[in-house]
Amino acid sequence: MNRTSTVYQYDLLERAENPFKKLYKVYSDGSNYIARRVVKNSRPKVLRHIKTDVDCLFDFLFDEACKTYFAENKKDSEFTLLKDEIYRAFTEDYLLDFPFLRQYIAENVERRMRNIWQREKRFRRKAYLNEWNYFVTFTYDGKKHTAESFEKKLRKCLSNLHTRRGWRFMGVTEHGEENGRLHFHFLMFIPDGQMVGRLEKRKDYSKKRGCVQETVINTFFERQFGRNDFSEVRKMQFKNGDAVAYLLKYLRKGGERIIYSRGIPTEITKLLDEEDDICCEFEGCMHIRYILFDNVIDYERDIVPFQSPLYGYVRSCA
Predict the structure, then answer these.
(1) Each residue of 157-172: pLDDT tens digit?
(2) How far is CA 117 from CA 38, 111, 251, 255, in A?
(3) What does the alpha-carbon distance between residue 164 and residue 108 come to, in Å, rounded to a whole number?
(4) Are 170 and 123 in contact (CB under 8 A)?
């Protein structure tokens, strides 16, 4: 009996595990599907740190310094300038000094930068693994809402659209450079036939670009929240990384919490055949990684997250 029929019988009758396949975690880097072997490790116990007033002050100074640091010091790989700026603020602005202050700052800068790297890695993997068809911007309108009600009601509206119409979204907040106006930037997937309102083309003058530009607005969100922009996203934009890099810029600058809808996987678990599914391997930071052939992962079969049933609908008005 050849290998193929043996594997088929084992799988069909559940007599034994498939000897030719192993369990892998699979994610996308935007160009290829990358896999790593699933390894069962016991998580070490982490002692919970009680936050002190000094820790709160450090977090505040770190967030303030990061607003300009990432834009101006791209080659500072050791974060020396960032550490010096925080040390100066501690000793000169707040007149606070204690033994091992520089060591304390260095350790906490490393911790915060590691957290930022982890957030960005998770954001990239979610963005590249899932499909999106719109890049959406919502702008705060002071005539319709306060800043607090704008954020609260917009997030509630998007949550309802996720539950009732199967929308998926992930994004960040941003405060405009000129006037500090609140914006929300989202990657969205809107299933066919589940759009609310109408998409209409509008022309207006852009102060930032200094010219008249054409945008696509949604009439439902314009009426409820104010100015918005729905731009179609093409797959090539993700292969080039333009849309994801644009969002990560605001993530670094503002340090705001990322907004995700439910059901957006970061990676998937899949049985893979080492001979038939794996193209090549390379050394990762902690594990050996494997690049898969393009036809191994099927989006509809392997990645599409659970879709909530349409329990209701959001009224679509022209």
Answers:
(1) 999 999 899 899 998 8
(2) 22, 10, 11, 12
(3) 43
(4) yes
Record the tokens describing residue 21, joined without a space. 């396949």
Confidence at 307, pLDDT banded by 50, 70, 90: very low
11: alpha, beta or left, given left = phi > 0 and alpha = psi -120 to 50? alpha
Degrees (nearest 5) of the Cα angle 248, 245, 204? 95
Distance CA 272, CA 179 (A): 52
Spans of all domains in the chain:
53-124, 131-260
In the DSSP assignment, the letter for residue 177 is T
HSE (CB half, 13 Å, CA atoms) of 152? 5
Query: Across the chain, what does the average pLDDT equal?
Result: 80
Fold exhibited by the domain 131-260? Alpha-Beta Plaits (3.30.70)
In this prediction, residue 18 has a pLDDT band, given cuts at 50, 70 and 90, of low
- Whether 309 has a pLDDT exceeding 80, the answer reads no
Mention every residue, 6+ apart, whose C-beta is less than 8 A from residue 225.
138, 141, 144, 145, 150, 153, 154, 157
Q: Is the pLDDT of residue 283 over 80?
A: yes
